[in-house]
């Protein structure tokens, strides 16, 4: 009898001890989780002090979702007024070069909380029909933004279209102009590859690059071929310099933007007088695609469209050599004008 009572007592003590230990462990875990929920620093100290006329850049970044709703047309006039949103003319334009990396540059600059991009190419200054609609039509094509943000658009055709420099000058003579370039022969082949893909999609045939780039009658470089002509950067830039001083241009290395984007983006931030906000955190290499992708925050990532980074067709090396020799004197002049040298062959 005594033995049974002792056994029952031990069992009760074991149960009570288990409950006590379990409660203690729960309390420890609860306190630990509450500690993790506490802010690392006081709310007032999270932002660096700004002037009264400035909107904190992190606050602008927080409101990107709101801007997205306005872009989709889901906003009333009253909402736009309450949030102090406007459609601004661009303070900077990526004017070219086609197949130089204009889309990648625009998307990467959009990582900056003080930058708002026009999603589509507007083709206002290079299209006579659009230009005839007037500057107000152009402004209404711009995204909603806060007054302290910079709106940027890109239309690569601007760089090579004769009328564009004067038209942009009439809109804003102090505008900042971005030109992204690649090694001229590589850019020309990339240009050809995009057109070729379009032809193949429509089941159409197309000449080989060699036949287009080299005049069959003279065996010299065919400067009438648009892909070749576009790569003569200095010829186009000289036309722009009749209206704008060289200080209003910034040349971006499109080849380096592919392999090492951050230093190029930091140079653009400086040119646009933006505080440095784009960091390595915002850029991560996607091994599957072979390109850097964009990280806006812990939730939202973005990679460029699958059409970017097309595989180039094989081109006869003698043609590549001839093109490089042809572009060489133009490249040297381009370096001299812009003050930026590239390791182009």
Q: Would you summarize the structure shown here?
A:
The chain is built from 15 helices and ten strands.
Commentary on this structure:
Belongs to the sulfotransferase 1 family. This protein is an alpha/beta fold and 345 residues long. It has helices spanning 2-37, 57-62, 64-71, 77-82, 102-109, 128-131, 135-139, 164-171, 184-201, 209-213, 226-230, 233-240, 254-259, 261-271, 317-338; strands at 86-87, 92-96, 115-117, 144-145, 150-154, 176-181, 249-253, 283-286, 291-295, 301-302. The strands form 3 sheets. Strands 3-5-2-6-7 form a 5-stranded parallel β-sheet. α12 runs parallel beside α15 (317-338). The longest helix is centred in the N-terminal third of the chain and has 36 residues, at 2-37. Mean pLDDT is 83; it is low at 24-62.
Structure characteristics:
single chain; golgi apparatus; 345 residues; alpha/beta; signal-anchor; globular; 3-stranded antiparallel sheet
